[in-house]
Amino acid sequence: MYIKSPMNYVGGKYKLLEQIEPLFPKKINRMADLFCGGLDVTLNTDAKEHWCNDVNYHLIEIYRALRNWGADDALFRIDSTIKTFGLERGNKETYYRFRDHYNKTKRPIDLFILLCFCFNSQLRFNEKHEFNSSFSATNSLTDARRDNLVKIIPLLSGIHFTSMEFQRFDFGMLKPGDFVYADPPYLIANPTYNDGKRGFTGWDEHLESLLYETLDGLTKRGIAFAVSNVLEHKDNRNEILDKWVRDNGYTLHHLHIDYGHASYNIKKPKCFTDEVLVTNY
Prior knowledge:
The chain has nine helices and eight strands.
């Protein structure tokens, strides 16, 4: 049974874990998750040491706060805040009042609460780094999400968190036996994360190529890596990814996703997406 993150992060890999986790190395000394997002992959990968990085420091601040407080204190703070502000499913007025409050105080726990009540749990900011995700009439802090929060908090104590652009990560500390996982924004299939409108730099062909060059460097040093990405989406194909895999002889694993029960080998539906995992071992 895999652990589900309470973040409900857009682009999270929870539903694909049963396919990608068995493809990881069986023994991992140090694991580095370069685009850790909601932590679904890290929380479900056995390693002696975990390093989680994400360019969105607001996200990393949530994890650090939860780790420092522990489950009981964190839940007390969350429940007290929800009660104080009168947050409830379908209450648009209190949501926007609370969002304004967060943008003044920037308390990480308040941001987690906002993610529970906002549209699609989208972690979006404007250029001033003010949280600007819109209200959802159906979202709230559900019992399932609360249970998932309680499950992950004890695990956070064993994770080293960093927040920087992936190219600034300290790859020099890695050695053979270590493992790097990368789940970057998808160049051809993830406009929400590519557009640079989350208050952070968007994703483009230059960064895509730079990531692959960085991973090539790990291969030369005997360090294993796995990359999640999309090779084909609708009528678009990630030519940079395709060429990189072919030129270097990396292993391409096609993942199985339910596209309305359409067969991969029969006919591609209009919404067809070829999600893959690339490994250098």
